[in-house]
Amino acid sequence: MKKLTKLDKIYEDIDQTYGQATEEQMQETLENLEKELNGKKEALARLQEQGSDKTEGLEKDIENLGKHMQNIEGYAKNRGQIKKIQQYRDSLEQKLLLEINKRDSHVNNLKTLVPQFEEVYKKFKDEKYTMELDGNEYNELVERKEALLAEIKSNREGLITAKKRIIDLNSKIGKCNLAWKTLFVNKDWDEIQRRAASDEKRFTRKVSENSIVLADGKVDTGKKISTERDMVYDSEAVSKEIGDNVKDILDKNEGKNLPAKVSRWTKIKNFFKGIPAKLKEVFGKDLDEEAIEDGKKSSGSKPKTEARDQFLEGLRQYADEDYRKQVKKEKEEAYIEAHKPKEDIEK
Q1: Three-state secondary structure readout of 251-268
Q2: Is the Cα dihedral 59, 61, 64, 69 positive or negative?
Q3: Which DSSP letter does residue 273 get?
Q4: Which SS3 state, helix, strand or coil, does residue 219 take?
Q5: pLDDT digits 0-9 by tens, 138-178
Q6: Which stretch of DSSP H or E encloses residue 243?
Q7: Is the pTM of this model over 0.85?
Q8: Which of 74, 94, 134, 193 has its CA 20 to 30 A from that of 172?
C-alpha cells in the first residue's frame, strides 16, 4: 500500500466530500468559505485594535482556512484533469511493478549464472585439465561456455533495460504527481513547468540515472549491483585477463610437446576463437530503451526549449481537452501558413 502524503490525504477528504458536487454547489461552498474567512479576518482586526494577545490562534485558523479554500478552488477548477492524470499515473505504476519484477528476476539469474561461468572459465585456464580432455569432452566444455555466455548476455541486457525503464517510469510518475498536486493547490500548468525546470523539490523527487527504486519505494543507488562478480559488468577487465592467459599459455608451452589427444594450437584456437566478438556482445554497450507511450503526445506548433518539459506538455494535452484542441488548431494554422503559395518575385 502506498504511503500517503499530507496533501494526498487532504485531496482524498475533499474528493470524498465533493466528488459528486455540481459546479453550482462547489461555487456555493466557496462563497460560504469566503464569508467565514472574512468574518475571521474582521474578528482578528478587532482583537488587534484592542491590543489583545489572543490573536495567535485566530491567525492560524485564518491561514488554514485560506489553504483549505485554495484546495477547494483548485479541486473545483481542475478535478477533471486531476482524475485523468492520476489514472495515467496509476497505469505507469503498474508498468513499474512489472519492470521491478523483471529486474529482480534478471539479478537472481545472474547470481546463478556467473558462478557457473567462473567454474567453466577456471577449467579453461587450467592447462593440465584441458590437455587431458578428449575431443568430445573439450567440445562439451566449449558448448557449455558459449551457452552460459549467451544466458549471461540475455539477462544482462534484460537487467539494463529494466533498470532504465524503472528510472524512466519513476521520473514520469513523479511528474504526474507534480502536475496533479500543483493543480490541486490552484496553480496552473505554467507553474508546473516552472517547478519541473527549477531546483524546487515539491511534490516529486529526483532519481539519478544510476538509482533504482525498489518495491518498497526506497532508492537503491546501484551499489548492490556492484557486489555481483565484476566479470559480468567489466568487459575491459575480462578482455585483459583472457589476453594475458593466451600469452601465458603460448609462453609456457613454447618448445614443449603437448599431449596428442588434442593439439595445442587447436585447443588454443578453438577456445579463444570468437572471444572478443562474444565479449562485445555480452559486455558491450547498453541497449537503447524501447519507447514508452507518454500519453497523447503532440509537438504542436510551440517551439521546444530546454526549459519546457515535453512529457508534461504531452500530459497536459492528454488531461486538458480544451488545450489539446488549441494546440491542434495552432498546428493546423502554422501548417497552412507554412504552405501558402509564395509571391511571384518578378511581379
Answers
A1: HHCCCCCCCCCCCHHHHH
A2: negative
A3: T
A4: strand
A5: 888 888 989 999 999 999 999 999 999 999 999 999 999 99
A6: helix 235-252
A7: no
A8: 74
